């Protein structure tokens, strides 16, 4: 039911999305900057939507085939369907996604499928919203569960060599509390909590806080899942913090977008 709501809300918001998606545009731009190769043969974008990431990706890289997936019937989509269930193109060199994978019903299973469909040395680059996202509006989004940054990193590290990961806090301010609530409608975010007049009238926030995370992961032939799984997680994190502290960072960006 939630996935069908996502599809319906996304299509309804198509006329307003690009104008109001300032945070999503910023995230897409930041994500593309993490793509460091100029050319890929087969590329898959998951959750392409209206094309915020697609436009920036086309400017950044050359490719032979670009698969554009979404659950909703946007004009540019050539791989329609729910990414949790559809078959993925075989042996992609790059799989990329911006601000979408938090909707996955089973992220660990999806990451396993993505790993299977990447070529050796293929890259999986993505951003998604994490725990703490839109905390101001929890009463309107009671059924949306955001995973923690560490939970996602742990899942990803079981199969990939994680080259880079960091989280970022972005504040977006509005002229009024009502304008802040309209963000959901303008962006097609399905509110699945309460919607009574009392809750709406009592809402006083004039800012929304987005909590996002970025990951760059690589499928490597000699990457040992068994070896990493048997090592204490605390030891892995201690080593990572010591040797890769410049690549695994926490970032905060506050201001009006």
Please explain how this structure is put together.
With 257 residues, this protein is α/β, with parallel strands linked by helices. The protein has one domain: 3-Layer(aba) Sandwich (Rossmann fold). The protein is built from 10 helices and 8 strands. Helix 3 runs parallel beside helix 4. The longest helix has 11 residues. The C terminus is likely disordered.
SSE inventory with pairings:
Layout: H1 2-12, H2 14-20, H3 22-32, E1 39-46, H4 52-60, E2 62-70, E3 79-80, E4 92-97, H5 107-116, E5 118-129, H6 149-157, E6 161-173, H7 177-187, H8 197-202, E7 207-218, H9 225-230, H10 233-243, E8 248-253
Count of DSSP H/I helices: 10
The CATH topology comes to Rossmann fold
Coarse morphology: globular
Largest beta-sheet details:
8 strands, mixed
From the alpha-carbon coordinates, what is the Rg to the nearest angstrom? 18 Å
Strand order of the largest sheet: 3-2-1-4-5-7-6-8
- Mean residue pLDDT: 85
CATH architecture label name: 3-Layer(aba) Sandwich
Count of spatially separate domains: 1
N→C terminal distance: 32 Å
CATH class: Alpha Beta
Unreliable stretches: 225-256
- What's the quaternary structure here? single chain
β-strand number? 8
Q: What would CATH call the homologous superfamily?
A: Vaccinia Virus protein VP39
Helical/strand content category = alpha/beta
Order of helices and strands: HHHEHEEEHEHEHHEHHE
Proportion of residues in extended strands? 25-35%
The residue fraction in helices comes out at: 25-40%
């Amino acid at each position: 039911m939630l996935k069908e709501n996502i599809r319906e809300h996304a299509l309804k918001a198509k006329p307003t999305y690009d104008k109001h998606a300032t945070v999503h545009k910023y995230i897409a731009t930041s994500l593309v900057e993490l793509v460091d190769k100029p050319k890929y043969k087969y590329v898959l974008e998951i959750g392409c939507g209206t094309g915020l990431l697609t436009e920036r990706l086309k400017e950044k890289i050359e490719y032979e085939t670009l698969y554009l997936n979404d659950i909703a019937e946007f004009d540019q989509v050539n791989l329609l369907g729910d990414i949790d269930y559809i078959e993925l193109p075989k042996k992609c060199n790059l799989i990329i996604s911006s601000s979408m994978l938090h909707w996955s019903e089973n992220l660990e299973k999806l990451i396993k499928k993505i790993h299977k469909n990447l070529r050796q040395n293929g890259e999986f680059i993505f951003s998604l919203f994490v725990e703490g996202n839109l905390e101001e509006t929890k009463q309107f989004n009671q059924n949306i569960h955001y995973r923690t940054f560490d939970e996602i990193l742990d899942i990803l590290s079981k199969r990939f060599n994680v080259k880079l990961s960091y989280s970022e806090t972005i504040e977006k301010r509005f002229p009024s509390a009502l304008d802040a609530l309209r963000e959901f409608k303008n962006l097609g975010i399905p509110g699945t909590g309460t919607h009574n007049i009392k809750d709406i009238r009592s809402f006083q926030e004039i800012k929304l806080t987005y909590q996002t995370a970025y990951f760059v992961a690589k499928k490597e032939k000699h990457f040992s899942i068994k070896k990493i799984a048997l090592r204490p997680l605390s030891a892995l994190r201690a080593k990572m913090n010591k040797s890769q502290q410049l690549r695994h960072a926490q970032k905060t960006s506050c201001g009006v977008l």
